[in-house]
Structure formats: structure tokens, C-alpha cells
């Protein structure tokens, strides 16, 4: 063998090794399904505040990204499932009162990512915010002033996060839907009403939509304390603060008149067949919470219809305040969301 032929063979071998390594790396980065970025637009990790997002343990192409929030002075983790085919629509899913700092319950408890896996819409699932109602609070959220909790969720969701989503996931500022359960349902309607240019569609599943009705503030105060020692007065001020009424969906609905559609639902508070096996004490509290949500939602809806808002209502004959009810509504409204957002 000549020296030239030997060098040529060595060169070919090295080139083959480089291609093999590059292919292996590409498959590892591609995430679930081992699909390369060329074949699957979701198959690559976006940059975030700490360098790069990471694949979420729940799978289904979900990335866990740290997004810097200037208003809160820290990174906020967000679980994001990119649109299947590069669409620019976004669907914000807001958690309930006991949101954790580990995961958004929409993917942990019912796996919204599996439900919307083949849809051309980006799921946006912020992590954290227990007891926050996703609002900008007046002061520290808890009574522990030595370790102040700074809640500025409205600013994050409507000013800071959209810029990140547009830059790295192609989500348009003005092409979003927003939904939430319980506390998140209250927040979804409030945010959609205040930011109609951002949210075309709003959905509330078992939300509390008359937060300043007689007795409601007392129930909220008790719920916030039980959820983590949160101070209701630090949210919007005292009982007579105008901000409390400005953030009550019952009075804050004018901005929803131009929405493509609004959807509200709440079960009757009667346990469904799927609720069999749940501990009796949990059933009792979930029955009460859902019954209150039902009354609150119906009162809000009556005013919304009279105000000319395009609202769809659903009040199943059974269903209590739990993930059987919330997950069922998520699946039921999937066609409505995708039709409205043109994101099939």
C-alpha cells in the first residue's frame, strides 16, 4: 500500500467517526422519540437564562426553561411544549392554589402535553405561584418578612415571558389562549380581560369569578393562609381597596367583549363515578369547593351574557373540585382551543 493510499484510508476512517459521533449527539439532543432537529422542529433545546433549557422528565417534547423575571428578581421555571409544526399560537395553562415549585400540575396530574402532542400550538406552563392568583402583589406575600416572597406574576406573564417565547419559540404576542383551574381560572379571565391584545381566548375551569361577593373575601383569606401562610391584604390591599374590585372577574370583564370566545365550566359538586375511592374527607372538601365555584361561575356568566360577551358555559351534572373534573374539561375543550387558534 502506498503512503498516499494509507493517508486516504485514515482520512476516510476519521471522517466516518466524526459523522457517527455527530449523529449520536444529534439523537441524544433530540429528546423523546430520538428524532433529529431536521425532521422534528421540537427536537432541540432552546437557550434560557441559565444557558439552555433541559428536557423535562415528563417527556412529550416538553422543555423546562428558566426565564429571568426582572420584576421578581429571579428565574421563573416554565414547562414548554413547542408547537408540532412551528405554529405561532400559544396556550398558557395556569395552576391552582397549591401550585408547587417542582412542576405545573397541568402536565403532572393530567399530562396536557400528551393531550396536545400533535397540535400546532405551544403549551406554556409556568411553575410556582402558590396562592398568588397570578397577580402583581402590593407587598411580601407571606407574613415572614425575613424571607419576603415577591409576587409579580401579572408582569411576568404579560410583559416578560411573551418576549422570551417570541424570541425562542416563535409564539406571537397577539395569538394566545389562556386557561386555568380554580385560582388559575380566576386569573385567566382577569388577565384576558386586561390584555385583550395578548389573549384571544380565555377558559376557566371551576374558577372563582365573584371574588368580592359577600363572604368571598373571608373564604379567600382562609384558603390563602392554609395554602402557605399567604397574607390576603398584601395582594391588593385592605378590604376597601379599589384593587380588590378591579381584580374581581365579575367587575373586570369589559375587555372580554372582543375575545374570539370565552369558556367557563364548573361541576355540580356531586361526586362522579370516577371519584370512587377518594378519601371521604377529600371528597367532602372537593364537593364544597366545586359547589362554590359553580355558583360563582353561574353568577359571572349571567352578567357576561347580558354584557354581550361571547361565552360558552358547561355545568356537568356531576364533578367535584379535583383533577378528574379539570382533566376532563381540558380534553373536552381541546377542539375549541385548536379551532379558535387555527392550530390543528
TrEMBL record:
SUPFAM superfamilies for the chain: alpha/beta-Hydrolases
Transmembrane segments: none
Protein's name in the database: Diacylglycerol O-acyltransferase/trehalose O-mycolyltransferase
Keyword Oxidoreductase recorded: no
Molecular function per GO: diacylglycerol O-acyltransferase activity; trehalose O-mycolyltransferase activity
InterPro entries xrefs: AB_hydrolase_fold, Esterase-like, Mycobacterial_A85_antigen
Keyword Plastid recorded: no
Lineage: Bacteria, Bacillati, Actinomycetota, Actinomycetes, Mycobacteriales
Organism: Corynebacterium guangdongense
EC number: 2.3.1.122, 2.3.1.20
